Amino acid sequence: MPAAMNKNGMVTEIHTRIRKEPFTANYELVGRELGRGKFAVVKKCVEKATGKQFAAKFLRKRRKGADCRVDILNEIAVLESAKESPYVVGLHEVYETNSEIVLVLECAAGGEIFNQCVADNDEAFTEKDVVRLAKQILTGVAFLHQNNVVHLDLKPQNILLTSVRPLGDIRIVDFGLSRRMDSVTEVREILGTPEYVAPEILNYEPISTATDMWSIGVLIYVMLTGESPFLGDDKQETFLNISQVNVDYSQETFEEVSSLAVDFIKSLLVKNPRKRATAEECLNHPWLNSHPHSHPHLHTRAASSLDEPETSQSESEPESPASSPELGLIGSYLMCPGKGELKAGRDTFSFSEPPFPTRTEIQQELIC
Ligand SMILES: Nc1ncnc2c1ncn2[C@@H]1O[C@H](COP(=O)(O)OP(=O)(O)OP(=O)(O)O)[C@@H](O)[C@H]1O
Q1: Is residue 62 part of a domain?
Q2: How much is the pTM?
């Protein structure tokens, strides 16, 4: 295990200088809030010295009564390790006050791809757009995986665009749940978005880079159809759909979408993580090297079944839920580098149990 990594797979050694002067000495906040998450507010700002625009992410250090500074250091360390990738949001500077850490990030002015996923007009993606953006997402994720980082929260709200018109390039954001996979480590708490989590998360089985690949399968499904493949009427139904890999591949849902695209998604929404395509394998899939027509705009039917996130403009309480309901699993996960041979001894989550299994200790055996 690298020296600066704790047993939860979090890296705490960073190279960026943490500035202690007030953030407002060097930046001016402009315009409206760009977004918010569970513990952060993101606002547009301008660097006084250069006039350049950035996105300032204000992260609270105390969350639910606990000091979470190490989690923020981990997020910074992951951003540092991915700075060579054009598809991972750039980190410019870091500021710290008694209560907050401010990450000054490259501003992705086009916002979340979520907006195009729910669009029902000419703002919606064409299949050609999705092919181009999928290549970028996979190139970014392949870079993370080559560097032994797993994102663990890939969803349309965390894939941003540099511009909307013309359609720009993607930037992957929100490394708050990311972990290093350099050695077998344990993760105790997984907070994610129910619709995007892989079956191994629900079953408390080991996490690997394949866990991200499941989420990419869901993401591409949503980008092409405007529908969320596993979303049920409640969390329990969503979990059941995920666990049973209950996916609708009907022609009606994939109207105007090529069969190569469906084949691509099928290579990712596979229950066994070892049988799921890797990012590298995906990049070689014929769909990504095909040339679908640029029209029509996809899912121009009635708006999709996706939950629209509430983007609150309020300044006050960053802990309020921002997007679709969160998943909160407290468990014990093993993280396995690569696709090692895994043997998990956990009995499967029963859906007669409450929707949030809270088992704290699971015996697992790992043969890598
Ligand atoms: N660099 C950026 N440029 C523009 N908008 C951004 C940027 N970073 C984040 N945002 C916006 O702010 C939102 C919240 O940011 P982020 O997901 O990083 O916060 P978080 O608190 O870690 O979220 P979560 O609760 O999902 O873990 C994003 O979904 C996006 O809409």
Answers
A1: yes
A2: 0.85
